[in-house]
Amino acid sequence: MQEPTTPAERAKFAAARRALDYVEPGMRLGLGTGSTAVFLVRLLGERMADRDLLCVPTSSRTAALATECGLNVRALEDVDALDLTIDGADEFDPGLTLIKGGGGSLLQEKIVAAASARMVVIADESKAVSRLGAFPLPVEVVRFGWRSTMRHIERLLATEDVDGRGVRRRTAGDEPFVTDEGHFILDLDLGRIGDAPGLARRLDSLPGVVETGLFLGLADAAIVGREDGGVDFVERVSGDRT
Ligand SMILES: O=C[C@H](O)[C@H](O)[C@H](O)COP(=O)(O)O
């Protein structure tokens, strides 16, 4: 694999490389989506393709790459429980609550993470924040009646502890972005999220909302890559997996 050249890529690569230490032969492994996960999948293909791993991808993109890299790819339906999922994040706070979905794969990512005994996040240091919300929060919604769902979300945000209240449908070029499961993504420009569990719960209860990009109680640890090629670790200290 080509060595990364930019400082940001070096940091992502460092996190992905260290994550290989968590992978044991014979594991049933969830594979994340995004630019950091691409490094992970390539490294797994190069160094561990012969270790009897069963790999469950979190998107069609990751499935295609993992197959190309010679990994043994299975659907979650065929594997049931997973030992470990390794995935990127758009933001994470000190308690390892995450914002995910910048690449549009939050629904499969959350299902795969929830099916895993452990989830390890790989990210560069720019993703570590003291409070979530600078990254727009992705919310996956069904296409039917999406404008109505958007209005419900806007009304909800009027009473939430957030700094911004903008909601926009994600696009891909001139077209609406459509997820692997055929849904739209609404991106919420919140600036700061004061009550992530409450906001997630209230968004989840709205008709038309499929899933939010807030990952609560799912990540067990984060490997944070630095631009100098080193890594730092963050462990979730308390609380059961939800
Ligand atoms: O839907 C995409 C995922 O949640 C990604 O894991 C997230 O966007 C981080 O991606 P990247 O590693 O490219 O920063």
From TrEMBL:
<keyword id="KW-0413">Isomerase</keyword>
<feature type="binding site">
    <location>
        <begin position="87"/>
        <end position="90"/>
    </location>
    <ligand>
        <name>substrate</name>
    </ligand>
</feature>
<feature type="active site" description="Proton acceptor">
    <location>
        <position position="109"/>
    </location>
</feature>
<protein>
    <recommendedName>
        <fullName>Ribose-5-phosphate isomerase A</fullName>
        <ecNumber>5.3.1.6</ecNumber>
    </recommendedName>
</protein>
<feature type="binding site">
    <location>
        <begin position="33"/>
        <end position="36"/>
    </location>
    <ligand>
        <name>substrate</name>
    </ligand>
</feature>
<dbReference type="Pfam" id="PF06026">
    <property type="entry name" value="Rib_5-P_isom_A"/>
</dbReference>
<dbReference type="InterPro" id="IPR037171">
    <property type="entry name" value="NagB/RpiA_transferase-like"/>
</dbReference>
<dbReference type="InterPro" id="IPR050262">
    <property type="entry name" value="Ribose-5P_isomerase"/>
</dbReference>
<dbReference type="GO" id="GO:0004751">
    <property type="term" value="F:ribose-5-phosphate isomerase activity"/>
</dbReference>
<comment type="subunit">
    <text>Homodimer.</text>
</comment>
<comment type="similarity">
    <text>Belongs to the ribose 5-phosphate isomerase family.</text>
</comment>
<feature type="binding site">
    <location>
        <begin position="100"/>
        <end position="103"/>
    </location>
    <ligand>
        <name>substrate</name>
    </ligand>
</feature>
<comment type="pathway">
    <text>Carbohydrate degradation; pentose phosphate pathway; D-ribose 5-phosphate from D-ribulose 5-phosphate (non-oxidative stage): step 1/1.</text>
</comment>
<dbReference type="InterPro" id="IPR004788">
    <property type="entry name" value="Ribose5P_isomerase_type_A"/>
</dbReference>
<dbReference type="InterPro" id="IPR020672">
    <property type="entry name" value="Ribose5P_isomerase_typA_subgr"/>
</dbReference>
<comment type="function">
    <text>Catalyzes the reversible conversion of ribose-5-phosphate to ribulose 5-phosphate.</text>
</comment>
<dbReference type="GO" id="GO:0009052">
    <property type="term" value="P:pentose-phosphate shunt, non-oxidative branch"/>
</dbReference>
<feature type="binding site">
    <location>
        <position position="127"/>
    </location>
    <ligand>
        <name>substrate</name>
    </ligand>
</feature>
